[in-house]
Design goal:
The structure is a homodimer. Chain A has seven helices and five strands; from the N terminus they run ααβααβαβαβαβ. By secondary structure, the first copy, chain A, is an alpha+beta fold. The longest helix of chain A has 19 residues. The N and C termini of chain A lie far apart (about 40 Å). Chains A and B meet through helix 1, helix 2, strand 1, helix 3 and helix 5 of A and helix 1, helix 2, strand 1, helix 3 and helix 5 of B. Strand 5 of chain A pairs parallel with strand 1 of chain B, so a sheet runs across the interface.
Chain lengths: ~220, ~220
């Protein structure tokens, strides 16, 4: 790409309105169709992810597509164990509601991406991450958010599963010890689309109303 | 919003192409004009941020607009101290290049947002964050990425400064101890727009070419 200075108005009102609409329609998907996602489309989504900002231009994102039945079974087993442990925290009605929630689409989703941050990337020469090394993981999250938005714009759903012991996933997938699990993503076409988060529809939690509030110092 | 089931094709090819263009044009800005950003526009960007996913619908983002000259001076002093420390890591040509980089726009940017994650939010009832509590900070990063993209679509620049000792910033801004600094954002109209990251233009680092690569297991 050429490096020209550009005007601020690269985007118009219609695009901006659609972008807000995309933010509104992006859901954390738990119910997937099993039909495959075309490889070209997956590549497009990964390219979109890698256009994210990264601390010191370190690009610490590391993606693993988990495809073998053997490994997927181990991932599901790990999820079940971690979820069992988590459910012990609740009691009474809350426990019943927790246990009724579908918190992963691991069995149906055609694509599984385990997404890691390399805690020791050579690229970037350490810039910007001396006092906040977690900025490496944060760079990977920005890439995931790009991926998620690009996917939703294509009608593809993403579900972020965080109910794992991260070091167990790193071990199952035989990743280098410097890689830290940031997210385990289920990817595929959703069974249905919704405007409100599933946790809100099912009565677990509501969004806060103060959507444009901040504090001043 | 009503909760209707929706078709997958809410977005068209033109929007999708513009979205990729937005990802490409989003820069980490260091050179700001001092002219103010309208309040209505800031509110719109914050609403966009808060449409991000959050673990267990916990919405742990906490935003502080840093406005007083007194506090801004303390923030700049903290940045200078942390940056001095960081520059000691380099030597020779790399040190000279490091010291020539403009790594913050703290003095010019009209808007400063310190963005925190509440590590103990009541909202969300702990769901999804037992084994990976860092998913709270990750939710805040997703909100920042929404903010960043929405800002760029409006011609507003964002610069993420991570060269701070986070607990020092929390203390300067007198935030509750459960709040963890995720990012310090400089926000304003950029002096110029570029297609390539400043760190690449100035010879610090290049982007990796494997933009659609991943590993398979």
């Amino acid at each position: 790409m050429t490096d020209t200075s550009r005007p601020a108005s690269d985007f118009d009102d219609l695009f901006r309105a659609s972008l807000i609409r995309l933010f509104q329609l992006r859901r954390d998907v738990r119910h997937f169709q099993t039909k495959p996602v075309p490889m070209d489309l997956l590549k497009k989504l990964v390219r979109a992810a890698k256009l994210a900002p990264s601390v010191g231009l370190s690009e610490p994102w590391r993606l693993i597509s988990v495809e073998s039945d053997h490994l997927r079974k181990q991932i599901v087993d790990e999820y079940v164990a971690a979820n069992q442990q988590a459910s012990e925290l609740y009691s009474g009605d809350t426990k019943g509601l927790y246990q009724s929630l579908k918190l992963a689409g691991l069995k149906e989703a055609p694509v599984h991406f385990a997404v890691f941050a390399d805690a020791e990337p050579a690229q970037g020469k350490g810039l910007g991450r001396q006092t906040m090394p977690e900025s490496l993981e944060y760079s990977v999250v920005a890439a995931i958010q790009n991926f998620w938005l690009a996917a939703r714009a294509e009608g593809v759903g993403v579900g972020w599963v965080s109910i794992f012991r991260p070091e167990r996933v790193t071990a199952i997938l035989q990743c280098p010890p410097s890689w830290r699990l940031v997210a385990y993503l289920c990817v595929g076409y959703p069974v249905e689309e919704h405007e409100t988060p599933e946790l809100e529809r099912l009565g677990w939690e509501n969004r806060d109303n103060a959507q444009d509030a901040w504090q001043v110092r």
